[in-house]
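Look over both lines before class:
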Amino acid sequence: MNHPIQTPASNTAAFNQKRKKLFALLAVAVAAAGGGYGTYWKLVASHYVSTDNAYTNAEVAQVTSQIDGQVADVKVVNSQKIKRGDVLVTLDNTDATLNLRQAQADLARAQAQKIAAESDLERASIDLKRREALAGTGAVSGDEITHIKDAENNAHAALDAANASIAQSQARLDRTRVDLARTVIRAPVDGVVARREVQLGQRVQPSVPLLSVVPVQSMYVNANFKEVQLEGVHPGQKATMTSDLYGSDIVYHGVVEGFDGGTGSAFALIPAQNATGNWIKVVQRLPVRIRLDPAELAAHPLRVGLSMNTTIDLQNKS
């Protein structure tokens, strides 16, 4: 039986034909993949924008003392959960208590002075009426009546001074009561204690930070989207987020609340000066604030600064 002889030319032609078929199949596969991706982008992907440049944040409450004083007790530690009104720090109240007692004594003295002034005024008024009744008979001289009028005027002035002294003493008493109450520093909001710097025995002054309270129940997300992604983003749109802390199994749901007033670079300590000869355009990111669901936060608490993967649905609104 005779077999056809394979020549080099026939081998090359067969190889070229096979390669053309493979390239044709590859072109068909690429075209199909491109068409599929285009369809997916038009029907699905173009309706969402996503970023992994997102972080949790909260309106952290900074606790400071409103008066000078020495720390007598610190009742909280970092990471401790607290409720609004819980005692955080107490200051030595010895000076405040003494000032309160002094203010109470000053008020009592002013009130006694008022009583004496009222008595003097009443007596002077009675004397003046009696003298004026007798003036027509000539039994009382004009000088005597003038003297009684001066006494009445002086009693009026003493009463006015006593009333002013009472008002001043009352204000001082109210202030000392406030200062005494301020020796007990309480939590302004519910949350978790963070950055506790105050120590027992420390001398504190107003405006010096003692600790912070993070309201974890009011956490939100700052998602830094590229400026080219924000054309279709509007307040009220729904968003889904996952945290690196819990993984992709835990999904948070939120709502877009708004946009920051500027990009991060615009508010940097040293803003970029783009009016230079070697300027290179860099796509900027604008923080988008997203409100989280309080129930989901309660079930899976977050902390400030955690990374979040964020996707915004450009079609749906809450």
User: Anything to note?
Assistant: The chain has four helices and 14 strands.
